[in-house]
């Protein structure tokens, strides 16, 4: 038995219906032994540093859908997601005490990770560690492979990005600009619009909440139509985009955050356009690209170091602030990538 | 001036709202000179033999949508579509009197075709000439390239085809079977279901009009889910299929006949499945494959001659029967490919 320490944890109280609220979660404190338990001799014991707030986590707050072979959250148990952690004890020959890793971990101070082969070892710590929850982690790979592989972009094409200041969208826009595309983003506050135009280099941006007619807004920004849509929101925006796609357009279906809280999703009506304009709608999951992580790092790390790629983070301070940060994603409270620093930084 | 002859024509009376009716058309008789007019010195004068009834023609009955660079029908004028014709006089050096061609022509006995370079010359007449409106024409290429190119099929995959006994569907099913796929089709009458199972070699088929729950019907026929959906109908069927697609599934969006007569299309709700199952929805137009016609003929003609590919046609007798045949597509009256023989055969 190792030293006993307190372990603050974020617990899901019950399955969530509609928009998640802070009160759907409870921050509790248990104690934990700082030793890898016997039942997990091949696992690792880690101290979590940063946790990632990601829209897909909303889906895990539903009752498990047995047709999907993924782990849903369990009411009464600690929730989990992407995070950056330091290894305290390792039963895995590829990891040792002191190593930094990123991957799926618990929303708590200390976690036992039972399948450490799924973790990514962090070899470069000259960049902010929190980046491994975002630009150098799942979100970064989503943007990179989603844009370059799924969208098959060409110089000069018209690119539209929804949730454009978010963890993924802000990168898609910058990748598209670097390739010589014309890029318009949409987001839900003036602050985010300013960020897109003034800091992230988007050609144009508009606040969808201030547009009574999304179709008209798109026609205004894309009089020639849209070649590539990087889809993060779904629903009414997708419908409006379908009506404005150019021939041979591509839609990378990455996320549909506007739909996750609805009991019944919005209907989409403009699907005939898929045929008339020969559109490709491609759903993808970043896991399918994890074997190409080193290729991704080789491309993105130099851009970060040379300050050719910007990443806006919104860091919540401490696990106590975790539930608010997580549910804030769904009202757009975050500006940039939402991270939770497990240990308060202030 | 050449010999004057009577020229029976099918005229669209006015733009069509809702389901098209026979009374939306008028069959009239004018006279025509059997000589290429001076204003079309590079065109060809043809005598039409067979006309093709195709679902896309419904779209052309709307008022022109200027965002699509295609020709819509003009009220008061003769309608047009794919057909097989014999050249009577040619201003095109590649065509001569007596040649048989297929391509876009008028719904009338005699037509002047102004852009004959778009016509396909018929070199093989040991097969029924009417086949060039279907299996050896646009529908055949749609099925062939739509299935082999767009769907990227693999042996053993689960394939679902809607409007399965139609001009395209019956071929997709046979191509899929020949590749070793498991193929289920749907259609709207018992006669068509029998045809699919007993003549066209589908593994299973069901009458969608007798299913109160399309989702349940699909689960019954595809307990493992669907790898490939060849989409000819859209709307509620598409929605149900999305809920039953397997990971990495492909949907070839070829047509959405259920939607063409609606003022407002049906809403589709299951789009999140595109992401969760990494589905590719690919719209396509057969025109993009026209340059590969000889490759297609080389593949399909031998199969027809060896009777390894069956094609069910429904031939209406004479132009007078044309309007009923055309509108019959939308109530599913036709059994197999609907053709109009310009010259009555009985």
Automatic annotation (TrEMBL), chains A, B:
Keywords: Oxidoreductase. Signal peptide: none annotated. The keyword Phosphoprotein does not apply. Pfam families: ADH_N_2, ADH_zinc_N. Residues 21-340 form the Enoyl reductase (ER) domain. This is Enoyl reductase (ER) domain-containing protein. It comes from Citrullus colocynthis (colocynth).
């Amino acid at each position: 038995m190792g030293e006993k320490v307190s372990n603050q944890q974020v617990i899901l109280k019950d399955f969530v219906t509609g928009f998640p609220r802070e009160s759907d979660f409870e921050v509790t404190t248990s104690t934990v032994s700082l030793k890898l338990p016997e039942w997990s001799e091949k696992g690792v014991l880690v101290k979590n540093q940063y946790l990632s707030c990601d829209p897909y986590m909303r889906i895990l707050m539903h009752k498990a859908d047995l047709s999907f072979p993924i782990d849903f959250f369990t009411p009464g148990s600690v929730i989990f997601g992407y995070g950056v952690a330091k290894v305290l004890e390792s039963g895995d020959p590829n990891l040792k005490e002191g190593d930094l890793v990123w991957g799926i971990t618990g929303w708590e101070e200390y976690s036992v990770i039972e399948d450490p082969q799924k973790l990514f070892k962090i070899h470069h710590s000259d960049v902010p560690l929190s980046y491994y929850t975002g630009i150098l982690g799942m979100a970064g790979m989503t943007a990179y492979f989603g844009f370059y592989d799924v969208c098959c972009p060409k110089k000069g094409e018209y690119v539209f990005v929804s949730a454009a200041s978010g963890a993924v969208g802000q990168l898609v826009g910058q990748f598209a600009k670097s390739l010589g595309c014309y890029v318009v983003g949409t987001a839900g506050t003036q602050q985010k619009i300013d960020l897109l135009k003034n800091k992230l280099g988007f050609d144009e941006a508009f606040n969808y909440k201030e547009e009574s007619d999304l179709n008209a807004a798109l026609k205004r920004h894309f009089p020639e139509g849209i070649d590539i849509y990087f889809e993060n929101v779904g629903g009414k925006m997708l419908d409006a985009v379908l009506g404005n796609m150019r021939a041979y357009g591509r839609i990378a279906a990455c996320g549909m955050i506007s739909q996750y809280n609805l009991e019944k999703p919005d209907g989409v009506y403009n699907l005939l356009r898929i045929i008339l304009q020969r559109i490709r709608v491609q759903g993808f999951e970043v896991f399918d690209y994890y074997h190409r992580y080193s290729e991704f790092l080789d491309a993105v790390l130099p851009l970060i170091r040379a300050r050719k790629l910007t990443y806006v983070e919104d860091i919540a301070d401490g696990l106590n602030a975790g539930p608010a940060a997580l549910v804030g994603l769904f009202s757009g409270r975050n500006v940039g990538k939402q991270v939770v620093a497990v240990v308060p930084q202030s």
